[in-house]
Specification:
Layout: H1 2-33, H2 36-75, E1 78-82, H3 96-110, E2 119-124, E3 127-135, H4 141-144, H5 152-161, E4 175-184
Antiparallel strand pairs: 1-4, 2-3, 3-4
Helix pairs in contact: 2-5
């Protein structure tokens, strides 16, 4: 019996170690992914107070990628925002894995799951990937809400900065996109 238990323990040990490693990666990825949104919200609120919603568009366009780059340098994780309805085709188009996660999140949210809790993490090949849903907040609606509710100044600024924009028509609580992080193993 001892030999059997020892053999079983030897077979199970690598799985337990892998499970602990996966859990540590998930925890780390979750921490990295939740770093950007609060910083972005503060920057947006400050700029909206100074120059209105139309003046805050450069925060999402220019400052958010810089913030993500700084977080990437500090953590070793690549971080970006992607969406099925991208505003910035150069930066926000999901790859196949991200697209599948976004579509799954939309289905789960439609079935009643809280968008704020939707996330997915897994090892794929030689990297760990993680996405966390970005629900639309009231603050976002000035630029991402229904087109007929956007101010003329916001419409003009979006048209100037994002000629191929598809990121309007949202309601509060809908999934705007995801924060996507990945790290080579």
């Amino acid at each position: 019996m001892k030999k059997f238990l020892l053999a079983a323990a030897m077979l199970i040990a690598p799985f337990a170690t892998a499970l602990a490693s996966d859990e540590a990666l998930l925890t780390e990825a979750r921490k990295v992914a939740t770093t950007l949104p609060p910083k972005l919200i503060v920057a947006l609120q400050d700029e909206i107070k100074k120059s209105g919603a139309e003046g805050a568009i450069p925060v999402c366009k220019d400052m958010a990628p810089k913030m993500a780059g700084e977080i990437s340098q500090q953590t070793g994780w690549k971080i970006k925002r992607v969406s099925l309805k991208a505003r910035n085709d150069a930066r926000a188009i999901p790859d196949a894995w991200e697209k599948a996660a976004l579509e799954d999140f939309d289905k789960r949210a439609a079935a009643g799951e809280s968008p704020a809790k939707l996330e997915k993490g897994e090892k794929i090949g030689n990297e760990y990937r993680f996405v966390k849903a970005l629900p639309v907040q009231a603050l976002c609606l000035s630029c991402h809400g229904p087109v007929d509710q956007l101010s003329p100044a916001v419409k003009a600024a979006i048209g100037q900065n994002y000629p191929n924009d598809r990121a309007t028509g949202y309601a509060e609580g809908q999934i705007r996109g995801v924060i996507s992080v990945r790290k080579a193993l």
